[in-house]
Amino acid sequence: MTAQAGSRRRVVMPQPAGSGRLSRAASTVPLRETRTAATRTVRGPQRERHEPDHLVLVVTLALAAMGLLMVYSTTGVATAIQNQGDPFGGIATQLGFSVLGVLALVVFMRLDYRYLRLVSVPAFLVAVALLVVVLLPAIGPLRPIIAGGSARWLQIGSLPAMHPAELAKLAMVIYLAHWLAKRGTQAGSLLHGLVPFLVICGPVIALVAAEPDLGTTGVLALTAFTVFFVAGGSIWQLAMLAPVGLAALAIYVMNTGYQLARVETFLDPWADPLERGFQTVQGLYALGIGGVFGIGLGQSRLPGGLVLPNAQNDFIFAVIGQEFGMIGAVAVIGLFLLLAYRGVRIALGAPDTFAALLATGITAWLCFQALINIGVVVALLPITGITLPFVSDGGSSLVVSFAAVGILLSISRETLPRGTWNDADPDRGRGYGRPHLPGPGRPPVVVRARR
Fold it and tell me: Cβ distance 325 to 294 under 8 Å?
């Protein structure tokens, strides 16, 4: 029967099986309609973006602001007081990288995260190639830089030195999210899940370990296995890998002289407090001197003050504890916990599986790195050369971390209310043999006139 003019119409949207809350949420999206003389044609639900997660943005900017303040305290104040030099010389570089990082955050936040699937494979291959190059002698404009016995940095022409492992973190997370989204339930299989996963991640982890860089190796491994587990990897298969991983770690430490010395120092830093245990002991002293409220900004760098190696990099958390006390240290830890919580919420409300796994990987990477850095400073872990995200002095780490948060914010712009990650579109339909941008993927809307 033809609908009467002015009568109410009911839109019935057939929901595909297994769509769950995603379909119910999508059915609330306004429909784009085109009226003709006789019928009304509905083109279907359109994706709607909302504001990004402002809490993630505020947390990131707060950590970056704290980083600029502490880098100035550890470099600018000491230079001005002790050497009568330019107090802003050390902070200028960090400020420049912070500006680049914020620009990267804005670009990736405004970019549809699905486009990352198109570049996931080439980006991963480029990251692996850079990890290989950093272990080789100079090749043309590519010149590895050896610092502290590790070949971690790469100089490309006249550009600032970069840390290829930082790019590898982001590239690996993007590719794993894309690959596991296509793999679907096969992620729990041994031959189609675990074995290919190890083939993908194994070379990246091994190349970083060969630099050697144990801290970054740990971050990569923990992040990769977290994404794999969330994607449906078998917990029993992962449990069987634990003894193999521990054995490989023991062999690696035993055959790397300075890593073995660090483990021995970790077990008893007071056995040699003026040599091998100097950095650990000084970091603990810094935290103790700070007390509850701290000694004040810049006071740690006064002449005759506490000497703390790598104060602006690996041990910047100790400086925070010294100058701002337990309150400042707890505030930084609270910001990272808040970032972890919001990252998990974004993953739970993601509109598709690729986005859920990508948000999981980014959140795990940043929080595991912060956990390891803080654990080293408070002597819960052996010393590793790893930065505190957004806070420590550094260029590659800062810019890449900002870009990762930009991707997380891009996903947050399309999160669904009360969604869960296993309600999301699995992205495993036909035609996903190679990365491409998924369409709405929903049946046409049926419009029925009410009698």
Answer: yes
Tens digits of residue pLDDT in 147-157: 766 778 888 88
Among 223, 234, 178, smallest CA distance to 201 is for 223
CA dist., res. 96 & res. 373, Å (int):
24
Nearest to 416 by CA among 27, 15, 14: 27
Dihedral sign computed on CA atoms, order 325, 319, 308, 78? negative
| CB burial of residue 308 (10 Å; 0-12, 13-18, 19+) | buried
Residue pair 25/419 in contact by the 8 Å Cβ criterion? yes
Classified as helix, coil or strand, 209 is helix
Q: For 232-270, give the DSSP string.
A: T--HHHHHHHHHHHHHHHHHHHHTSHHHHHHHHHHH-GG
Q: CA–CA separation, 150 vs 210, rounded Å? A: 9
What whole-number percentage of the chain has pLDDT above 90? 42
Q: What are phi and psi of 316, to 5 degrees?
A: -70, -25
CA angle 113–428–198, rounded 5-degree value = 80
Distance CA 411, CA 391 (A): 24
- Outline where DSSP puts E strands in 37-77: 40-45
CB hemisphere CA count around 384 (13 angstroms): 25
Contact (Cβ atoms closer than 8 angstroms) between residue 409 and residue 109? yes
Query: What does the CA dihedral 335, 337, 339, 345 come to, rounded to 10 degrees?
Result: -150
Measure the N-to-C terminal CA separation of the chain; round to a whole number of Å: 7
**Cα-based torsion angle of the residue sequence 363, 369, 370, 376 in order, rounded to the nearest 10 degrees:** 160
Structure tokens at 333: 């830890």
Q: Which of 69, 68, 130, 131 is nearest to 102 (CA)?
A: 68
Q: What is the DSSP letter of 403?
A: H
Residue 105, both tokens = 């955050």
Asked if 135 contacts 151 with a C-beta cutoff of 8 angstroms, the reply is: yes
Give dist(CA 46, CA 27) in Å, integer: 10
What single-letter DSSP state applies at residue 162? B
State the Cα–Cα distance between residues 63 and 445, nearest whole angstrom.
Answer: 46
pLDDT in tens, 352-383: 999 999 999 999 999 999 999 999 999 999 98
CA distance 324 to 320: 6
- pTM over 0.70? The answer is yes
